[in-house]
């Protein structure tokens, strides 16, 4: 892993190595050719930070999209990008199977005046493909490093020679000889190349990661590159997203066709439903499924919100027995997700048949609130040679759907991050209190009861514990400061003493994290008194629990959910 050191394991590598191969650029929502903004196209070579490049650029009101770094030249040119960024990655340009952009890409970029910026591994690719020399560095550079501007440059603008800044490095290889026309504009304190330019060819490279917050002037460097060097204009807004999505939905769904929307009670599916309803009106038919895996009084609370605040036509289907009978005895997390996805689709198909009898026409489409992180976490790493990655987890709205599904999917939020979905929801007048709800996984409590969800009274215990935890967070005024909080039922028992008697009862874990998009997360630091109060409430108020633990791991190395 010469191009970039991967930190952690499991999901720490996976979300960012993903190739966006599950997004068909020709069919994706938010057609870049119609969006009121230039497109910055990111060719992803597996960096754990690639999603941050997308987010940083969008935060500057410029539309950005990721596709596989090994996409065909036809795929790249079809999107008509104004700028292309080559991401970092864990590879070395010296290995035979290292991923690279397609032949002819640089010639096309130059012929069409499309600037290219290589970041970390992307810089090394530029150097190597253009005839320069990349070698294993004498000293590797990982983490915070100081760099120094060596000569006037487009990337660093008015920064004087000798100007220093702190950046985030993550590389083992380094460029030692540059191709013709390039010059070094910044070096690290150890003498390694930190930034290169060939302005006449509109080719630029940064050996560090400007997209991470540890690079103190990184966002300003990206801003300068996009607006001053490339001449882009900030013109991408969430209002544009809404208008474009409505056009896409109307173009997709025929004037006489009907659509089913699977409402989970979460922010994503609700915003998706509100958006589709705005596009096609009463031809949207919403269904909320009680699968026996919901939180405490979730059905009652959610249905009230749908009917009173959102005025969406919703049918509630009681499928508790159907789901739990299929999950009985199942302990593997992936199997649980697949079963749940399959049962959901079976219910939607049945619901569609009933609608067909009522309408005289069967609905053709199913709306789901799939988000960009869902897609990212369900696709294969570049350079792996695999069509399916080592799976961290399948999303029932991405990887868990049966191949014989009869309904075609509409996923209007597929290219948005969670905070962007909330912005869209505000424009669509979804109640603020609803938009602030913490994320809830599609498989529900099935992935928060480790092991068999039907064993004993695990689900009832978890619901009670979770309700105490969340209500305590709200009472303490902490709810809006936390990205996601929940309880987990562990498949272990511990010895305790309650009421002067020895007990052998269940253990539950509390998990709370802060995050911007769910791709990375830090555990939330509670005051000790708060944790003490919550633990006492749980052990005193929930029969069958005698021990409470807290999960204090970040993502990576852990995922937010336990399964």
UniProtKB/TrEMBL annotation:
Q: What chemistry does it catalyse, as a reaction equation?
A: XMP + L-glutamine + ATP + H2O = GMP + L-glutamate + AMP + diphosphate + 2 H(+)
Q: So what does this one do? A: Catalyzes the conversion of xanthine monophosphate (XMP) to GMP in the presence of glutamine and ATP through an adenyl-XMP intermediate.
Binding locations of ATP: 264-270
Q: What is this protein called?
A: GMP synthase [glutamine-hydrolyzing]
Q: In which pathway does it act?
A: Purine metabolism; GMP biosynthesis; GMP from XMP (L-Gln route): step 1/1
| Keywords attached to this entry | ATP-binding, Glutamine amidotransferase, GMP biosynthesis, Ligase, Nucleotide-binding, Purine biosynthesis
- Give me the Gene Ontology terms describing cellular component: cytosol
Q: Care to name a GO molecular-function term for this sequence?
A: ATP binding
Pfam families xrefs:
GATase (PF00117), GMP_synt_C (PF00958), tRNA_Me_trans (PF03054)
Provide the E.C. number(s) assigned to this enzyme.
6.3.5.2
Per the record, the domain of life is Eukaryota
Is the keyword Membrane assigned to this protein?
no
Domain GMPS ATP-PPase: start-end pairs: 236-437
Q: Broadest EC class? A: ligase
Note whether Nucleotide-binding occurs among the keywords.
yes
Species the sequence originates in: Psophocarpus tetragonolobus
């Amino acid at each position: 892993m010469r191009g970039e050191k991967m930190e952690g394991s499991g999901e720490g590598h996976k979300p960012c190595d993903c190739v966006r191969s599950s997004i068909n650029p020709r069919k994706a929502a938010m057609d870049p050719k119609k969006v009121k903004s230039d497109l910055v196209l990111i060719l992803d070579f597996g960096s754990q930070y690639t999603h941050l490049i997308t987010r940083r650029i969008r935060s500057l009101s410029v539309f950005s999209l990721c596709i596989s770094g090994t996409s065909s030249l036809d795929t790249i040119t079809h999107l008509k990008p104004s700028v292309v960024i080559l991401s970092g990655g864990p590879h070395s340009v010296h290995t035979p199977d290292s991923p690279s952009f397609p032949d002819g890409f640089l010639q096309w970029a130059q012929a069409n005046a499309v600037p290219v910026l290589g970041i970390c591994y992307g810089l090394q690719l530029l150097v190597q493909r253009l005839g320069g020399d990349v070698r294993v560095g004498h000293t590797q550079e990982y983490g915070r490093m100081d760099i120094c501007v060596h000569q006037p440059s487009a990337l660093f603008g008015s920064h004087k020679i000798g100007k220093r800044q702190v950046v985030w490095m993550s590389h083992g290889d380094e460029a030692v000889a540059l191709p013709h026309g390039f010059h070094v504009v910044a070096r690290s304190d150890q003498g390694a190349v930190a930034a290169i330019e060939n302005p006449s060819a509109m080719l630029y490279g940064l050996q560090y990661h400007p997209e991470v917050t540890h690079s103190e002037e990184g966002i300003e460097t990206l801003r300068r590159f996009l607006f001053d060097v490339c001449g882009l204009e900030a013109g991408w807004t969430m209002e544009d997203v809404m208008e474009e999505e409505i056009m896409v939905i109307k173009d997709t769904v025929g004037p006489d066709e009907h659509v089913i929307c699977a409402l989970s009670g979460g922010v994503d599916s609700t915003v998706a439903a509100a958006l589709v309803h705005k596009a096609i009106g009463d031809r949207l038919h919403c269904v909320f499924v009680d699968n026996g895996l919901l939180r405490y009084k979730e059905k009652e609370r959610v249905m009230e919100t749908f009917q009173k605040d959102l005025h969406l036509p919703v049918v509630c289907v009681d499928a508790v027995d159907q789901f739990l009978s299929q999950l009985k005895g199942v302990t593997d997390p992936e199997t649980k997700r697949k079963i749940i996805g399959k049962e959901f689709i079976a219910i939607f198909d049945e619901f569609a048949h009933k609608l067909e009898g009522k309408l005289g026409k069967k609905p053709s489409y199913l709306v789901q609130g799939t988000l960009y992180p869902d897609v990212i976490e369900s696709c294969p790493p570049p350079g792996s040679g695999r069509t399916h990655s080592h799976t961290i987890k399948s999303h029932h709205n991405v990887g868990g759907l049966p191949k014989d599904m009869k309904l075609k999917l509409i996923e209007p939020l597929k290219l948005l991050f969670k905070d962007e979905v909330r912005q869209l929801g505000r424009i669509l007048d979804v109640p603020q209190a609803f938009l602030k709800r913490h994320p809830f996984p599609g498989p529900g409590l099935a992935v928060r009861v480790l092991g068999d969800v039907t064993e004993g009274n695990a689900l009832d215990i978890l619901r009670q514990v979770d309700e105490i935890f969340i209500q305590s967070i709200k009472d303490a005024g902490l709810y809006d400061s936390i990205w996601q909080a929940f309880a987990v039922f562990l498949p272990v028992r511990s010895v305790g003493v309650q009421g002067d008697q020895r007990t052998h009862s269940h253990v539950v874990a509390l998990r709370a994290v802060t995050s911007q998009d769910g791709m990375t997360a830090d555990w939330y630091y509670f005051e000790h008194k708060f944790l003490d109060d919550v633990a006492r409430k749980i052990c005193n108020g929930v029969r069958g629990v005698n021990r409470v633990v807290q999960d204090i791991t970040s993502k990576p190395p852990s995922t937010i959910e336990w399964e």
